[in-house]
Amino acid sequence: MGFDISGTKPEGEPGSYFRNNGNLWLPLWSYICQNCKFLTDEEIDRGYSNSYEWIDEASALRIADRLDERLATGEVTEYEIYFNRVKDTVPDKTCHLCEGGGKWLDAAFKAAWARAENLTEAECENCPQCNGTGKLRPFERFFTENVQEFAIFCRASGGFYIG
Ligand SMILES: [Zn+2]
Q1: 87 CA to centre of ligand 1 in angstroms
Q2: The pTM is what?
Q3: How far, in Å, are 53, 60, 120 from residue 162 at the CA level?
Q4: Residue 107 and residue 67 share a domain
């Protein structure tokens, strides 16, 4: 799942478009919500899904100010360190593609994958998502540069849709 964040009255290129995959956006939005208590409950909830929630220009500017403040004090980087420390303690997840078995569940998909990858079916015995282990590390990521880029987008966006 990806998130396309579109500026509604962009001041040039940096404010027109911002994209994150879900593993990046969801932790970023969570951080924004923790630090921007002026957002409404509805804005907060809908920002976690592709529901085209609209954040108006005044709120976009307040978010940008708050993020720039936290970036300047080093709090964003501290949060990044904290986030990764917590992530390291989280157990592996069960692979969603093979449901933990490490093998393809669907013979037709396996055959299509083999054709697409130019492999024999024997060469792609294992689930390609987890390489046959049945487990995956959590994917969520949070890093300072992503917050910087979003703050720049946010300031120039004129308000934005989260879709
Ligand atoms: Zn798997």
Answers
A1: 20
A2: 0.81
A3: 5, 12, 42
A4: no
